[in-house]
Amino acid sequence: MRSILPLCVLLAGVLLVPALPAPAHAQAGADLRGTWVLDMEASDDIEAAIRDYTGNMNRITALFARRLIRNTNQPWEWVRIDHGPARVSITTPGREPIVRAPDGEAQPWVRPEDRRTSDVSMRWRNDRLVQVFENEDGRRENVFSLGRDGRTLNMDVTLTSPRRDLPDPMSYRLVFRRR
Questions:
Q1: Are residues 156 and 130 in contact, defined by beta-carbon separation less than 8 angstroms?
Q2: 3-state helix/strand/coil string of 82-103
Q3: Which tens digits make up the pLDDT trace of 130-143?
Q4: 14: which residues sit within 8 A by CB, 6+ positions away?
């Protein structure tokens, strides 16, 4: 009986190891690497999304919210993504690349336009790359995924804020084509 127990434990360990989840960086299924150019016609109209989002707010709150959202949500003409097992790099026009480990750990980043600091993290969620910016005004989540055709990159953006006057999330999608 004693000699069978260690064998059972060993077999259980061998059989269960494949069932354990892989590390976050190993879950990257989609190859998002490359330079992608914005397709305005296939993308959501950000200005219309802002108008819809602020349409039921009082005038003063709506003016403030529109300005803040516009300033932080200018669509990029292009985006360059590079990734490997230990790092992800996202480059956009006029900015240095944002490079992070795909482990979800946030690190400070300074936005060059206004010198505001946000905590930025990146991680893989199945075959989607999730980039998160957080600061005292709220949170922006960019979820990058390949389109069904494999030739387009979708960036689904969700904005949330802890402010009472901005209670609901705002979402829109930008579509990019491989250069």
A1: no
A2: EECCCCEEEECCCCCCEEECCE
A3: 999 999 989 999 99
A4: none
Parse the chain into domains and list their residue ranges.
35-44+77-178
Of 48 and 166, the structure prediction assigns the larger pLDDT to 48
Question: What is the rounded distance in angstroms from the CA atom of residue 61 to the CA atom of residue 172?
Answer: 21
Contact between residue 81 and residue 34 where contact means Cβ atoms under 8 Å apart: yes
Tokens of 88: 């992800």
Decide the pairing of beta strands 138-146 and 128-135. antiparallel
- Domain 35-44+77-178 belongs to what topology? Lipocalin (2.40.128)
Rounded to two decimals, the pTM is 0.81
Helix axes 46-54, 59-72, angle to 10 degrees: 150
Nearest CA-CA partner of 89 in 79, 74, 78: 79
- The pLDDT of residue 2 is above 90: no
